[in-house]
Amino acid sequence: MTLSELLPSLGCEAADHLEPGLWPRRTTLGEDGELLFADAPVSHLAARFGTPAYLLDEAQVRETARAYRRALPEADVAFASKALCTRAVLRWMAEEGMSLDTCSAGEIAVARAVGFPAERILLHGNAKTPEDLKAALQYGVGRIVLDSLDEIEQLGALGSQRVLIRVTPGVNGDTHAAITTGTEGQKFGFSLRADVRDNVDRAVAAVLAQPSLELTGLHCHIGSQVSRVDRYEEAARRMVEVLVRVRDQYGVTLRDLDLGGGHAVPYVDREASFDLDGYARRLRVALAYECSSRDFPLPHLTIEPGRAIVGPAGITVYRVCAVKRGARTFVAVDGGMSDNPRPALYGARYTARLVGRRTKAARTPMTVVGRHCESGDVLADVCLPDDIHVGDLLAVPCTGAYHHSLASNYNLVGRPPLVGVRDGHATLLVRRETEEDLLRRC
Ligand code: LLP
User: Fold this and answer.
1) Is 321 a catalytic residue?
2) Mind listing the pLDDT tens digit of every residue in the chain (442 residues)?
């Protein structure tokens, strides 16, 4: 028998506070155990919109966008819409003066639906379909980031366009393999290595040979959930080297440098977060130094944060469906891997807390699981009050990014709604997926 089995509450601290930095800034805990989310009681939101439900603090999303623009006023800050792509969110981004990173005709369609300024849109993707390219050209997006020789040929034949070339800078973001994109041996970008067939030099030559394409710069994205600022400094230095190489070899001075996104956010207590001001400062110094020492003009910078803008502004609310006390206690909720596949995909860790009532019961380690037909359908290993029971509400923080956008209707469970909250007022931004929706397709 282990020590934690003998003393079940070992390592479980009292839950009388919200872990700082983990919950949206305007989330507070009431005396009665109620969680106020942007001034709205979560149990009321759960009753009104049902569970599971994604809640999003609009003011925090806007403030974070502003913080990015303030930290790097000289740069284009492009929200990576793959993190959360809805009309409302893209409207907020347009209003906050952000640019937009898209990666499909679908994301362009949402941007178009809200009149997102086309010149502020970038299109990405390692395998853009003809439909993606046509949608981008039709809407007149500002820049397309090219990622294969085939694509260069296809786009060149389709129409005139300003383009960047995606480079694999050989920088490791020190993150999960599935979201590492800056190193050799993964599918994104053109290699810097001379012994690789489709390398950056060939890509530059291929673009310059297409009269309809205007090469304005280079792009890289080293990965996602990257907390180390030095990795971005390193990427910036290497990218300036490539800009210089292109100038020396081809006689073209590229003015655009896009360093991608990937800035980490904490999902559990004491997890590393990203130092935005340190990043801005160190990036500026690195670029200024590299450029001046090589006599290269300072390029116009673009960055593409997604997760950091929306992730920490969101929470998910679930209702407990069953509590099973076996060798381990399982708390099963009415959602799971269909609304949050991140634990299963990336081994991501989350926390969860009881909301809506107060209890003095001791807290013990439990596993919060979903309702799907797989043992891997686990949401979090956490400490919860011993008297947890059917009908209780659980809230999981930091679910604003890559939850709604990664959601599926596995087991034909409808996808949850997304509810925007501002000053205590809730608005349904995306409605719940109904059986009627599901039946329309199968
Ligand atoms: N720019 C490019 C070219 C990207 O591929 C990505 C993310 C971003 C920007 C934004 O990265 P962010 O700042 O959001 O980390 N589903 C995974 C994340 C995949 C990210 C893919 N690309 C997850 O849930 O962790």
Assistant:
1) no
2) 455 455 555 578 777 789 988 999 999 999 899 999 999 999 999 999 999 999 999 999 999 999 999 999 999 999 999 999 999 999 999 999 999 999 999 999 999 999 999 999 999 999 999 999 999 999 999 999 999 999 999 999 999 999 999 999 998 877 888 887 888 888 999 999 999 999 999 999 999 999 999 999 999 999 999 999 999 999 999 999 999 999 999 999 999 999 999 999 999 998 888 999 999 999 999 999 999 999 999 999 999 999 999 999 999 999 999 999 999 999 999 999 999 999 999 999 999 999 999 999 999 999 999 999 999 999 999 999 999 999 999 999 999 999 999 999 999 999 999 999 999 999 999 999 999 999 999 9
**Using CA positions, which residue lies closest to atom 16 of ligand 1?**
402
Residue of 98, 224, 259 best suited for mutating to test ligand 1, as the one with most atoms within 8 Å of CB: 224
- Does ligand 1 have an atom closer than 6 angstroms to the CB of 402? yes
Going by C-alpha positions, the residue among 305, 342, 400 that lies closest to residue 38 is 400
Q: Which domains occur in the chain, in start order?
A: 3-57+312-439 (2.40.37.10), 58-310 (3.20.20.10)
Quote the ligand 1 centre to 179 CA distance (angstroms). Answer: 7
The catalytic position among 12, 373, 383, 398 is: 373
**With DSSP H G I counted as helix, E B as strand and the rest as coil, what are the percentages for the chain, rounded to 5?**
35, 25, 45
Q: What is the DSSP string of 248-316?
A: HHH-----EEE----B---SSTT-----HHHHHHHHHHHHHHHHHHTT-PPPEEEE--SHHHHGGGEEE
**Helix 149-158 vs helix 200-208: angle between axes, to the nearest 10 degrees?**
10
Whole-prediction pTM: 0.96
Distance 316 CA to ligand 1 centre (A): 20
